[in-house]
Amino acid sequence: MLRILGKASSINVRKVLWTCAELDIPFEREDWGSGFRSTHTPEFLALNPNAMIPVIQDGDITLWESNSIIRYLANRYNGDRLYPAEAKAKAPIDQWIDWQASDLNRSWSYAFMSLVRQSPQHQDRHALAAACSEWTRHMEILDKQLASTEAYVGGKEFSLADIPIGLSVNRWFETPLAHKDLPAVHAYYERLSLRPAFLQYGRNGTP
Known about the structure:
Protein name: Glutathione S-transferase family protein
Oligomer: single chain
Shape: globular
Pfam family, one: GST_C
Strand content: 5-15%
Domain GST N-terminal: 1-81
Structural class: alpha+beta
Organism: Comamonas terrae
Distance between the termini: 28 Å
Domain GST C-terminal: 86-207
């Protein structure tokens, strides 16, 4: 059975859990990370030298990096409906997955650490204002894309890209900052909320 190492509150672990739920993949999860077993032990570092969660073990393969993991799971467990094999159909999905990991993720980092984690190192009001502005700018990019598709981030059908993006939208709404009115993002959030797997692992009050 698929083994998932990582605490369930982690946004990156939740990507994996949501993917498993969408594809009906049975799994066993173990709590690792802050507040649980340390990822800096020799045991864990042998699995991921970066000391980060999640890590999966699936038979003889060990894999880390959450977006690589969800791609693997879709490829391995008949996930063509979420992640098609054909290159042109797959390209926009990969594009938005990568955008979430690089641009969008980076834009929220300071604001999230300041407002949610209450990190003492992230309380400069000017840096926080700049971070909130940058996060909003990236959410406006997403809003424009969703207004164009009138459905999901990669097109008319739910895809693997909506898992990292959907969790990012949850983080946006759950973080206590002034939220610009983004109608397409709001409609998307409600659309995702019709999916039981999103309610379990996405819109569950955990940013």
